[in-house]
Amino acid sequence: MAELTTLESLLEMGFDRNRAEKAVANTGNQGIEQAMDWLMEHENDPDIDEPYVPPVGNVLGGEADSQSNAEQPTLADTAEGGDIGYNETDESSKHPMTEEEKREQVKRLEELMRVKQAERRERERAEEVEREKVRRRQGQELQQIRQKLQDDDMKKLADQRRKEKMEDKMARQRVKEKIARDREERAQKFGGGGPPSTAASFQPAQPSPSSPTSQGPPPTKKEYDESRIQVRLLDGSTITTVFKAQEPLAAVRVYVQMNGNTPEGQDFMLLSPYPRHVYTELDMEKPLKELGLVPSAVLVVAKK
Asked: Which band of pLDDT confidence, cut at 50, 70 and 90, is reported for residue 267?
């Protein structure tokens, strides 16, 4: 039984001639399996249906070419009465295939093609599984990188907040220390002059009632060295404490910051309700006595 050439077999199986010729040329006419493999691998190429132009000197269908070459000496030998055995072999190779033989060969080729397609689908499925594994692995790595960056940002933010709190705490501590130093300095300054003034205050009482100087000027106004301050907070509650008369108004503000319920970082101002007077930053350095807040006063906390 004569065999179909690779090109003929592909055409019998229903492949387009242009594609079949490309498959035969690109596989070097090495057989139907290689040609079918090439067709299945390149069926989605964008240029698969472009017209095929064979290179110069290249003849498609090596089997057909070899067969045609074999025909030429056969014809010559027939004309000259050549070798009988050679002619018989050539005639058998030229014998056309019956329809049943063609169907059998096409059936075998179609079965081979189904096997190849199944192998290709299995290979593509395995490649898709592997690509999915790679994609998931890359996604996990990307998620880990994002999580690490997020953790680093949260850590930096926490460190920044701790630093700000520490700086605020140190600033408050410095204010407290300054107030304490101011108190000590005022105590030393006014404490040294206290006894003479006390002695002097008793000296006018020593003369007898009959002394003509008993009708002198009236006694001086009582001096207060402390001030009782009541502060009304933003929510309506009040806090009360006692300050030295010579302490600055800033000491009251610090006391409100430390003991009031004012939100951290909330800026506020102090004012007197009656008569209404809003205290400025310059007033914060003035003693309570100078501001008329001795011996007692009521202050109100207000938002800026």
From this structure: confident
Predicted confidence (pLDDT) per residue in 184-221, tens digit = 888 888 765 444 444 444 445 455 544 444 455 666 66
- Nearest Cα neighbor of 251 from 167, 165, 182, 171 is 182
Matching residue, tokens 């490309």: 22
pTM of this prediction exceeds 0.90:
no
Return the DSSP state at 223.
P
61 close to 28: Cβ distance less than 8 angstroms: no
8 Å CB contact between 182 and 248: yes
For the chain, what is the domain count? 3
Element at 226 (helix H, strand E): strand 226-232
For strands 296-303 and 277-278, give the pairing: unpaired
Whether residue 181 sits in one domain with residue 111: yes
How far apart are the C-alpha atoms of 150 and 147, rounded to whole Å?
A: 5
Residue 213 placed within a domain: no
